Recover the amino acids of this structure.
């Protein structure tokens, strides 16, 4: 959905129900803003780092939202008190009469702050609690005492008070004389501020005059959604803003003239800002449109203060032009005199702002771009984020996973801005300390780090998981890299196998004249709407005719092994041995001979790993029930025996079934039973008849994600993670342990007889593992429900997120669960979508990270890992996704009838890992394995190839530049170099 910024602007993003308000007619320049889907590795990579020791961590709240005591001890009514008392104005007719009852819970609130470990607490003063009539002729000592107790308690606990003078709750008595449309409020607000400076300024050193002045002007006086409910979008917001700016400047000068010397504080105002992403970041027109939007939204108040005392030029021109077209005698945007401009300019000591989202969705990277925009627009002032958080509509969210993910990613973007971009960020405050009254939405959206039970008169507070998480960030002063995630330099065992994989249907041309019969994927892919974009595997990569080309790719990679599968239907067209397709079988013989003849290093040949079954069942067998028909066990055994007879003298590594869990997924009970029995029969056949002569290995390969509990402290989530692993491993457990896992989920599984159990047990020579990603599990739907961490990098597959740590944990779990069997990783890789990029930084990062976790598993955990296989050799047919998902180390141009292959940067990188048998420590100096190939053999695109040690960081260096100008910052060479140096430590 497009959002035309000429008409709408989201207000208070993500804080409950969205508010929309219209800029008057066409004041805001047209420019459609849409989320930009860019595969930007650098943008989305998680950054580990810390802030300086004096960085200010805090939480925020506001008076009306938490205090309650709306008429207690002589407090006067505010416009929000009266507004909420009118039925229908607030969702569920909620009011702030009691709210969180913080007026009576000073000690409890301070206890929560101490537990968090915050350095500051930002709150606002209720004008009408101190001056019930809004004027200094009547001072409410009870209100003053409340704030003194709060401030004293904070100071006693080394928590810095950050105080906002005005957060929307104007005394009703002042609204009765016109509110912020009356210039008399300039003096009245200054009188209130003067009293506060005099009364609290000896302890309060950080003052904010106005919170989100755009909201006061637009939503209160333009849209009329907030009190005072004035619906005059054409002129009122501009008049109100004019007065607000003058009022702010007056208060600033009062503090500067009378109190700064003795109190030594700072003073500013706090707008709300949402990042606006250009629809096309490389289009100057879209960049300009996004910047204009920010000038109307933010520059309206910050340009006069932080620049020249006047409104942005684009705002003056646009509003003035529209006013002229309306035949008005003057612009609807008021004009400052020269004296007023000088008086307003520079009336802020620091730059504070609130932010929640980006236009038009919540993406964490928008915060980093916003911080950079502020840096460039206002010459890198000291910056404090005063509000940042996320609301969840629920009655209870103590286990608030969503909020943790939000803070995890948004705070990380502030780390990037500070450490990589040199943004002068001084502090960060989470919104909010506790669940509270969220304006028009009442108590529905919950933003708090602490849950408040609003049904209980005592308003008890309960810390959420996010409170614990935020406290840890504060304690660590950022997000330092966990010890277990540090990169490990070293080598794999000398006999370690390096491999790459394909499968028959995914790469080989499926010409029926040579197969004589189809298989289930032939028919499935020819069924309309089954495969993305109507793709089929009819041609695939045409590996059937490109043995020599494929072998050359393997030689270039320097792999020691190549894993491929044999098409059952190509060898046995009807799935039985009644007719053997010698032409098809001869293809595999020629392929294997070519592989064995491929000398990739002195006295070494390319070894063959063969998968007997990779999902492409002959259609003739499916017509009689496929894997649900018991006779398939014998058919599979006969098929396997033919392969052992004809190919076994050259093939020394067999995989019976690839990912049987996926084969059985849609009909799991009988199918799983028959798959296990078929595997066992083939294993025994090889073991009894062929092993002694052929001397090979044979086993089964399973696919398994690592399942991490969403909440590592919740026993239900821990149990859900274990169940998730059990579901994925249930097809290998009988072979390793001789029994089938039993649970409610499997209650319909057929039972093995005792003799079958004995025959199945031990039918393995190694543990074959395909692994791609990790999930977070929790106990909602049996056996488990899973989500992913939003800080993990995405891929071209919706299910595949980059979480390398899970690979090591899974390998260690297999070691402990199955008594440390020999493990061969038979698939591991990542997909990308869209236009091909030969400089595939994401894939390079994936292999670097995952292979390093494999090294840790061997060196640090004692896992008996003996080989690693990258998926895939080349881009291929990815099942239901067709050719849209690209896993290949080599690019295949499917639009060219010749289907040419070209290496990607990841191919070069993987070959260097193989050449070095791991990761030589750069501290030891240049390693011979990193020597570059002759210039003529090097491939380049955008960036030249470098040795493996700096390839990874170099590609980041090349992609780290923001494009465009103005709203889309271009980093300086110095900043880019700093980014390069920091990211090289990842």
């Amino acid at each position: 959905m497009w959002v035309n910024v000429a008409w709408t602007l989201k207000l208070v993003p993500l804080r409950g129900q969205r508010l929309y308000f219209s800029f008057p007619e066409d004041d805001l320049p047209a420019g459609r803003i849409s989320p930009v889907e860019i595969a930007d590795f650098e943008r989305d990579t998680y950054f580990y780092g810390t802030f300086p020791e004096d960085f200010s961590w805090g939480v925020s709240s506001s008076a009306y939202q938490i205090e309650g005591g709306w008429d207690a001890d002589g407090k006067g009514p505010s416009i929000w008190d009266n507004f909420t008392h009118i039925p229908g104005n607030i969702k569920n007719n909620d009011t702030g009469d009691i709210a969180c009852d913080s007026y009576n819970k000073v000690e409890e609130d301070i206890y929560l702050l101490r537990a968090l470990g915050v350095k500051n607490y930002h709150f606002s003063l209720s004008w009408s609690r101190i001056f019930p009539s809004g004027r200094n002729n009547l001072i409410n000592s009870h209100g003053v005492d409340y704030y003194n107790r709060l401030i004293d308690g904070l100071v006693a606990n080394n928590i810095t008070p950050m105080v906002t003078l005005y957060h929307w709750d104007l005394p009703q008595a002042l609204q009765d004389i016109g509110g912020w449309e009356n210039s008399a409020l300039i003096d009245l607000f200054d009188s209130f501020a003067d009293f506060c400076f005099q009364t609290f300024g000896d302890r309060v050193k950080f003052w904010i005059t106005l919170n989100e002045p755009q909201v006061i002007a637009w939503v209160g006086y333009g849209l009329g959604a907030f009190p005072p409910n004035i619906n005059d979008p054409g002129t009122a917001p501009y008049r109100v803003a004019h007065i607000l700016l003058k009022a702010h400047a007056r208060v600033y000068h009062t503090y500067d003239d009378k109190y700064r010397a003795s109190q030594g504080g700072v003073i500013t105002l706090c707008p709300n800002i949402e990042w606006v992403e250009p629809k096309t970041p490389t289009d100057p027109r879209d960049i300009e449109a996004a910047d204009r939007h920010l000038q109307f939204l933010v520059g309206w108040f910050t340009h006069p203060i932080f620049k020249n005392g006047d409104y942005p030029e684009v705002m003056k021109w646009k509003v003035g032009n529209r006013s002229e077209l309306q035949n008005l005698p003057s612009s609807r945007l008021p004009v400052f005199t020269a004296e007023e401009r000088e008086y307003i300019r520079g009336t802020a000591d620091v730059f504070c702002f609130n932010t929640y989202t980006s236009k038009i969705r919540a993406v964490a990277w928008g915060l980093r771009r916003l911080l950079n925009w502020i840096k460039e627009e206002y010459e890198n002032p000291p910056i404090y984020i005063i509000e940042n958080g996320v609301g969840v509509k629920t009655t209870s969210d103590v286990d608030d996973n969503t909020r943790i993910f939000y803070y995890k990613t948004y705070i990380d973007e502030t780390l990037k801005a500070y450490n990589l971009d040199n943004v002068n960020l001084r502090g960060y405050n989470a919104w909010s300390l506790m669940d509270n009254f969220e304006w028009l939405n009442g108590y529905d959206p919950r933003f708090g780090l602490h849950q408040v039970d609003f049904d209980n008169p005592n308003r008890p507070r309960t810390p959420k998981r996010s409170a614990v998480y935020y406290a840890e960030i504060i304690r660590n002063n950022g997000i330092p890299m966990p010890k277990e995630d540090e990169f490990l330099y070293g080598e794999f065992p000398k006999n370690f196998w390096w491999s790459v994989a394909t499968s028959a249907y995914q790469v080989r041309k499926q010409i029926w004249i040579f197969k004589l019969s189809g298989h289930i994927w032939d028919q499935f892919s020819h069924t309309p709407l089954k495969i993305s974009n109507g793709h089929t595997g009819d041609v695939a990569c045409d590996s059937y005719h490109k043995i020599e080309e494929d072998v050359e790719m393997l030689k270039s990679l320097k792999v020691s092994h190549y894993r491929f599968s044999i098409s059952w239907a190509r060898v046995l067209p009807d799935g039985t041995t009644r007719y053997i397709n010698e032409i098809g079988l001869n293809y595999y013989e020629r392929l294997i001979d070519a592989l064995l003849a491929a000398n990739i290093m002195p006295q070494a040949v390319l070894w063959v790993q063969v998968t007997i079954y990779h999902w492409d069942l002959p259609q003739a067998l499916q017509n009689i029930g496929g894997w649900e028909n018991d006779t398939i066990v014998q058919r599979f055994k006969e098929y396997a025996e033919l392969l052992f007879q004809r190919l076994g003298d050259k093939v020394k590594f067999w995989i019976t079934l690839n990912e049987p869990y996926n084969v059985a997924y849609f009909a799991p009970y009988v199918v799983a039973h028959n798959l296990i029995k078929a595997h066992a029969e083939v294993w025994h056949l090889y073991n009894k008849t062929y092993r002694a002569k052929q001397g090979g290995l044979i086993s089964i390969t399973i696919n398994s994600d690592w399942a991490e509990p969403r909440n590592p402290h919740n026993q239900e989530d821990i149990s859900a993670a274990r169940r998730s692993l059990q579901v994925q491993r249930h097809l290998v457990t009988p072979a390793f342990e001789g029994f089938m896992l039993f649970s409610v989920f499997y209650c319909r599984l057929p039972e093995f007889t005792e003799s079958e159990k004995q025959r199945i047990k031990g039918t393995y020579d190694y543990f074959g593992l395909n692994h791609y990603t990790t999930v977070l599990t929790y106990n909602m739907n049996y056996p488990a429900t899973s989500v992913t961490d939003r800080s993990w990098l995405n891929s071209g597959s919706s299910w595949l997120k980059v979480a390398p740590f899970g690979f090591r944990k899974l390998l260690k779990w297999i070691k402990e669960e199955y008594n440390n069997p020999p493990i061969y990783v038979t698939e591991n890789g990542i997909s990308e979508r869209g236009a091909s990029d030969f400089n595939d930084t994401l894939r390079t990062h994936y292999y670097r990270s995952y292979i390093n976790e494999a090294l840790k598993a061997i060196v640090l955990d004692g896992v008996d890992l003996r080989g690693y296989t990258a998926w895939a050799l080349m881009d291929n047919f990815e099942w239901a996704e067709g050719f849209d998902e690209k896993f290949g180390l080599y690019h295949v141009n499917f639009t060219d009838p010749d289907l040419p292959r070209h290496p990607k940067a990841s191919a070069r990188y993987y070959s260097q890992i193989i050449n070095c048998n791991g990761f030589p420590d750069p501290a030891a100096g240049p390693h011979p394995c990193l020597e570059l190939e002759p210039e003529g053999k090097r491939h380049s695109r955008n960036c030249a190839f470098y040795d493996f040690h700096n390839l990874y960081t170099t590609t980041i260096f090349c992609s780290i530049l923001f494009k465009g100008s103005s709203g889309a910052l271009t980093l300086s060479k110095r900043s880019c170099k700093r980014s390069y140096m920091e990211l090289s430590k990842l």
